[in-house]
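I'm stuck. Please check this protein.
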Amino acid sequence: MTDALAADTLRLELRLTRRIDREDAAQEAWLAHLTGRNPARAVNTFAQRERRHRRRQRAVGGRAEVLGAKEISHAR
């Protein structure tokens, strides 16, 4: 893969990342670059992880509303 193609791929992945996550995604890309991994893949993995996290948070919040609970705490 050429440097220009890698840069274009990274730019696309960053553009597809949510605006509020772009700074963190750029940091993930830089860390991946420093460790010799593919920065575009690291950004994609980060974005997927954030989407899963947000889906889980909505599911927990929605369940609390359905159950009529104000807050669900699993910590003991």
About this structure: The chain is about 75% helix and 0% strand. The mean pLDDT is 83. Residues 23-56 form one domain.
